[in-house]
Specification:
Chain B: Residues 3-209 form the ABC transporter domain. The complex is a heterotrimer of chains A (246), B (209) and C (242). With 246 residues, chain A is mainly alpha-helical. Chain A has one domain (15-245). Chain A has eleven helices and no strands. In chain A, helix 9 runs antiparallel to helix 10 (184-210) and helix 10 runs antiparallel to helix 11. The two termini of chain A are 12 Å apart. By secondary structure, chain B is of the alpha/beta class. Chain B has one domain (26-186): P-loop containing nucleotide triphosphate hydrolases (Rossmann fold, 3-Layer(aba) Sandwich), CATH 3.40.50.300. Chain B is built from six helices and eight strands. Chain B has a five-stranded parallel beta sheet, sandwiched between helices. In chain B, strands 2-1-4 form a three-stranded antiparallel beta sheet, with helices on one face. Chain B starts with a strand and ends with a helix. The two termini of chain C are 38 Å apart. Chain C has a domain at 57-181 and 208-241. Chain C is built from six helices and no strands. At the A-C interface, helix 10 and helix 11 of A face helix 4 and helix 5 of C.
Chain lengths: 246, 209, 242
């Protein structure tokens, strides 16, 4: 299948990209980040929608569970983490789908920036417009859910360290379904199982923090997942994009 | 740099469409691909651009020295003309977009959002992108779609300037750009012959022989 | 002769054509012997009564649920590295079989758990892991369904299988961390003292062999179907092109 020049393009190495990578590549990645942030701000919808969704979850859960403060306080870490995770999921399909539709992804794949770098930058942009606002909004919603005082620091810390993993894993999922029309639901089905370890460790860290136990271990394990995902998944995602483009 | 394409075979959706495509493209020359719809012009250009793997054969020039312009221009509707162009310039490690704006007559539109451009203006912006890539070989897929006569002339001039500067262009087009430096390559003879005639097959079918 | 020659679809079809009835026969024999032996000729457990006999379905299907994924991982790697179409199609064929084994393991587990633990479902680490494995299977199958071009689908699902395996493993440890659980430990390791007694163990081994053979037979059959379907598609596409 992958003969001659094709072999370089099929998987992994992306030799074409790295060859031209240098000062120009760094500037190009910076330009891509600025462009994606600018698009998110101007096109609207992106992070505002995620935040609104997060707020809705924090409002609806007490309506469903009942107003007892101690019950809400007990489940608050899990609800906030699940809410943040779902809010993050909402905007995932925009990471690559728009660039795929208007042809930008073709052009980026032939640009001097390595495609792995494109994935990493786009995941970073997604985190900046969803993960960061969610992290900052979480303590406010924690008040609504009667989160005990000991939990706020751990909540912000765990979301700050865990939401990058959500964005990177999400970017991988988005890269898989970029060629699929109306791939939104499929994307959720692919990405949610991959979110399991991050969710477990993240929510566990907050729960332990609330209970006054040592929360460092789950927090560090989750950070390990974040770092590992950020280091390795861009390669898998870039491979998926190359497959989808051909 | 001379582009040498040797016995290239390309497939669309796993089915071979062209085989044995061989040509040379000298610096300063343009090569126009001709052939009926569906013969595989786009597939051939995408393969040469490195976006999809070839079934066999080779291309002498690495994809890093080629700029590909497809049907879709890769424009962002909410960015202005200048922002769109500056982005692609930065991606290719360049800064100056003035020359490109002038060449495609976009100076007066520079602060307008791409959403508010006409189809022809968008196309001009898409072609202006080629000028900020700084790459020697242009691969153009129907570059003149939705351009009016004046814009076609503008584009023809840009291509001519590119060729004069030692660049080259490979394009699939039905319109005569009035390029004296252009050769024509008819793709009809390279049509994949299919199994019955003993031509090459897609990877999966091959295994059944 | 290299083993890779069997990766040629034609060769694969020919060799599995005569192999398949034998595998089916062996699978049927093992399952018949193992299940009848297990259900009717073993004593009741002194604590668990006759409910223990569900292990003859539960344990082998749980094992195969995981083994099927491992097989898919290996097949995906072979496809990515050596580009053998049969390998990709075998991975595709194995997924629904693996999913079925996972569901059987979950259902039989629930049936067993009800009298033992007094509940149909508990968020025990192993149950949870299997539930998560179900989700991985569903995602993998859905991706195969969603992508039109078969080679693209094979590549994408192979990448998903690779990444999914890593995350499935991570999930397993995360779940263990999250809840220590009430599941009895693995009772089949050879060196363990608290092994199940031999009377239960031998019929169980026969059942496991039966399930392995059943899996092989199902995967071979489904792979043959996939190859035929793929061949048909190629012919139709060529017809349309000509």
């Amino acid at each position: 299948m992958f003969l001659q020049r094709g072999s370089g393009r099929g998987f992994g190495c992306g030799r074409d990209g790295w060859a031209g990578f240098g000062v120009a590549g760094g500037a190009g990645m910076w330009a891509l980040l600025i462009r994606d942030l600018r698009l998110a701000v101007r096109a609207g919808g992106g992070f505002g929608l995620g935040l609104a969704f997060f707020l809705l979850v924090a409002v609806l859960v007490p309506l469903g569970v009942g107003p007892e403060g101690d019950v809400l306080g007990r489940i608050a870490p899990g609800i906030l983490w699940v809410g943040a995770l779902l809010a993050c999921l909402l905007s995932l399909d925009r990471i690559f789908a728009l660039d795929f539709e208007d042809g930008s992804l073709d052009l980026l794949a032939t640009a001097p920036i390595p495609l792995e770098g494109v994935v990493a930058v786009k995941a970073l942009a997604h985190w900046l417009v969803t993960g960061v606002p969610l992290t900052l909004a979480a303590p406010v919603l924690g008040v609504l859910l009667n989160l005990p005082a000991a939990g706020y620091g751990w909540l912000v810390l765990s979301l700050a360290l865990g939401t990058p993993a959500l964005s990177v894993i999400g970017a991988f999922g988005a890269a898989l379904v970029v060629g699929v029309k109306r791939g939104g639901l499929l994307l959720s089905l692919l990405v949610l199982p991959l979110y399991v370890p991050t969710l477990i460790f993240g929510a566990e860290a907050v729960s332990r923090g609330v209970a006054g136990q040592a929360a460092e271990v789950p927090l560090l394990l989750m950070t390990g997942i974040t770092l590992g995902a950020a280091a390795l998944l861009p390669f898998a995602a870039a491979a998926a994009i190359r497959i989808n483009l051909r | 740099m001379e582009v040498r394409v040797d016995t290239l075979a390309v497939a669309r959706g796993g089915i071979p469409v062209l085989e044995g495509v061989t040509f040379r493209l000298q610096p300063g020359r343009a090569l126009i691909l001709r052939g009926p719809n569906g013969v595989g012009k786009t597939t051939l250009l995408r393969t040469i651009a490195g976006l999809q793997p070839a079934l066999e054969g080779r291309v002498s020039v690495p994809p890093e020295s080629m700029a590909y312009a497809a049907h879709a221009d890769g424009l962002k509707a909410v960015l202005t003309v200048e922002e769109n162009l500056r982005f692609w310039a930065a991606v290719h490690g360049l800064r100056d977009v003035e020359a490109a704006l002038v060449a495609m007559d976009l100076l007066s539109l520079r602060d307008r959002r791409a959403a508010n451009l006409s189809a022809g203006q968008k196309r001009r912006l898409g072609l202006a992108r080629l000028l900020v890539t700084g790459r020697a070989v242009w691969l153009l897929d129907e570059p003149t779609v939705s351009l009016d006569v004046a814009s076609v002339a503008l584009f023809g001039a840009a291509v001519r300037a590119h060729l004069a500067g030692g660049g080259s262009a490979l394009m699939a087009t039905h319109i005569d750009l009035g390029l004296a430096e252009a050769d024509v390559l008819d793709l009809e003879p390279f049509r994949a012959r299919g199994r019955v005639a003993g031509g090459r097959m897609g990877a999966f079918d091959e295994a059944f022989q | 002769m290299s083993i890779w020659e069997y990766a040629n679809p034609k060769k694969f079809m020919a060799s599995t054509g005569w192999l398949l009835p034998w595998v089916w026969g062996m699978a049927g024999l093992c399952l018949l012997v193992g299940l009848i032996w297990g259900y009717f000729f073993t004593p009741d457990d002194f604590r668990q009564g006759s409910t223990v006999k569900i292990i003859y379905l539960h344990v082998p299907s749980a094992m195969m649920a995981i083994n099927a994924w491992v097989m898919m991982l290996v097949a995906s790697l072979i496809w990515l590295i050596r580009r053998h179409h049969v390998s990709a199609l075998a991975a595709k064929a194995a997924a629904p079989v693996g999913l079925t084994f996972t569901v059987i393991a979950l259902v039989t587990g629930a049936l067993w758990g009800q009298p033992m633990w007094g509940t149909w479902w508990a968020w025990d680490p192993r149950l949870t892991s299997f539930l998560i494995l179900t989700l991985f299977y569903l995602g993998y199958i859905a991706l195969w369904q969603a992508v039109e071009n078969p080679d693209t689908a094979a590549d994408l699902t192979a990448v998903l299988c690779l990444v999914g395996s890593v995350f499935a493993l991570l999930s397993r440890y995360a779940v263990l961390f999250w809840n220590q659980g009430l599941h009895q430990g693995a009772s089949l390791s050879l060196d363990k003292e608290e092994n199940v007694a031999d009377v239960f163990w031998f019929p169980l081994l026969v059942c496991i062999a039966g399930f392995v053979l059943l899996f092989v037979a199902l995967v071979l059959m489904r792979t043959r179907t996939e190859i035929r379907a793929r061949r048909l598609q190629a012919l139709i596409a060529r017809e349309r092109l000509a």
